[in-house]
Every structure is written in structure tokens, then in C-alpha cells.
């Protein structure tokens, strides 16, 4: 199917409608500070936010600061995060992150993209979650929902998360990036699902190039 580029005006109109439709859209991970959000976001890879929120209270209690984690045994961490999947790799990354934060950043989570993506297990998605939600620095998170809906709405055409992020950042005003990702994720979970898009109830159906293409439910 030929893809017609969407104008920033149309995209912003759609974003306005989505924000009205999902006023409660926000980060679903439970955290109290940047360190906790960084840990929770690393754990959320290939795992639901609900599951992460079940695991983190005990983890945060055991390791309230990076300095507490660096002296832990990897096996001890693995036990606590086992149910989030990929637990060996995640535990290794958490320990590596904690070490790096203590050695290079005075035990604090850094506030720039370059410094964040230099941490073990931290990619642009995780970095944007932390920047946008913990520090108020606009971050365009591209997860599976954001990627899929951006494609369907004609907001992006790139094949990679990095490419989609770049297109969205060009299309949408910087100050709206963080919230745009939240509403797209909510829309992806509640309406524009991967297999069964609920187009008949969609708040942006009139502006969606997929109208009449997706299965109406
Ligand atoms: S009209 Fe359908 S495919 Fe388009 S954004 Fe809405 S739910 Fe998704």
C-alpha cells in the first residue's frame, strides 16, 4: 500500500484527540526516584509492567541505592527478579549499571542520552523513559505499541525503533514527546491492538489511513 506522509498539523490534531481520549495515560511502572525508574525499566524488557511492579518493592527495599546493589551477589538479584524473564542478563545489567553509576556518576542516574545509553543494558528506549519521566527532559519512547500505531497512522515509515523515533521527533513538538508515547501506548493496549484493532471505537479513525483496511471489531 502506498503511504502518504502525514502533515504535522494532522498529526498534532490526532495527538490532541488521543490525549483527550486517554487523560490518565502515564508511565505504568511504580517508582519513587530516577534509580528506581531505571531499574524498573530495565526489568520491563519482554515483561509486563504489572509483573515488574510485583517484583520491584522487595528489590527496592533490598537495594535502595546503586551503592547497595554493587555489593550484592548476582544470584541474590536473580532470585528477586526471576519472574520478569531473562533474569540472568537483567541481573548482570543491573549490577553493571549500579557499578557504573557509583564509579562514574557519584551514585546518581545521569541526565543525558549519551551518558544513559553508555550504561549496561540501557538502550534509547530505556533512556527516553528515564529522561522523560524522572527528569522532565522530553523523550520519545518507541516500544512495540508506539511503533505499530505510528505506522498505522502514517506518522512513521522507518523499520527500526531508532528510525521511527527520529521521524516522530521531527513530526511532533518536543514538549509533547513524553506524553505522546504514553497515549500511544495506552491506545495500543486498549484499542489499536496488534491483531484486533478496534477501529469502530477509535478516537482518530477519521484521520487513520488504515480505515477500512483494519478489521472492524
Ligand atoms: S483507526 Fe484502527 S488502525 Fe487506525 S489508529 Fe484507530 S484503531 Fe488503529
Describe this structure in words.
The protein is an all-alpha fold and 217 residues long. It has 2 domains: 8-25 and 140-207, Endonuclease Iii, domain 2 (Orthogonal Bundle), CATH 1.10.1670.10; 34-134, Hypothetical protein, domain 2 (Endonuclease III, domain 1, Orthogonal Bundle). 55% of the residues lie in helices and 0% in strands. The chain has 11 helices and no strands. The chain has helices at residues 8-21, 34-43, 49-62, 66-69, 74-81, 87-105, 113-117, 124-134, 144-152, 161-171, 177-190. The longest helix has 19 residues, at 87-105. The radius of gyration is 18 Å and the shape is elongated. The two termini are 22 Å apart. The protein binds iron/sulfur cluster (SF4). Iron/sulfur cluster binds at residues 149, 152-153, 191-192, 197-199, 202, 204-205, 208, 210-211, 214.
Structural class: mainly alpha
The N- and C-terminal alpha carbons lie at a distance of 22 Å
Anisotropy-based shape: elongated
Please report which band the strand proportion falls in: under 5%, 5-15%, 15-25%, 25-35%, 35-45% or over 45%: under 5%
Helix content: 40-55%
Q: What's the structural domain tally?
A: 2
Amino acid at each position: 500500500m502506498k503511504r502518504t506522509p502525514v502533515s504535522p498539523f494532522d498529526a498534532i490534531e490526532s495527538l490532541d484527540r488521543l490525549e483527550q481520549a486517554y487523560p490518565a495515560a502515564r508511565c505504568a511502572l511504580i517508582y519513587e526516584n530516577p534509580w528506581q525508574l531505571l531499574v524498573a525499566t530495565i526489568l520491563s524488557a519482554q515483561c509486563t509492567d504489572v509483573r515488574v511492579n510485583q517484583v520491584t518493592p522487595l528489590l527496592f527495599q533490598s537495594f535502595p541505592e546503586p551503592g547497595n546493589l554493587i555489593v550484592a551477589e548476582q544470584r541474590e538479584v536473580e532470585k528477586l527478579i526471576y519472574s520478569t524473564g531473562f533474569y540472568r542478563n537483567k541481573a548482570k545489567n543491573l549490577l553493571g549499571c549500579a557499578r557504573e553509576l557509583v564509579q562514574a556518576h557519584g551514585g546518581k542516574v545521569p541526565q543525558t542520552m549519551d551518558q544513559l545509553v553508555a550504561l549496561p543494558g540501557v538502550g534509547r528506549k530505556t533512556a527516553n523513559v528515564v529522561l522523560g519521566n524522572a527528569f522532565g527532559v522530553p523523550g520519545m519512547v518507541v516500544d512495540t505499541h508506539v511503533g505499530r500505531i505510528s505506522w498505522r497512522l502514517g506518522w512513521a515509515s522507518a523499520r527500526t525503533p531508532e528510525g521511527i523515533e527520529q521521524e516522530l521527533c521531527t513530526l511532533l513538538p518536543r514538549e509533547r514527546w513524553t506524553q505522546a508515547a504514553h497515549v500511544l501506548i495506552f491506545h495500543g493496549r486498549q484499542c489499536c491492538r496488534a491483531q484486533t484493532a478496534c477501529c469502530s471505537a477509535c478516537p482518530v479513525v477519521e484521520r487513520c489511513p488504515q480505515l477500512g483496511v483494519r478489521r472492524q471489531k
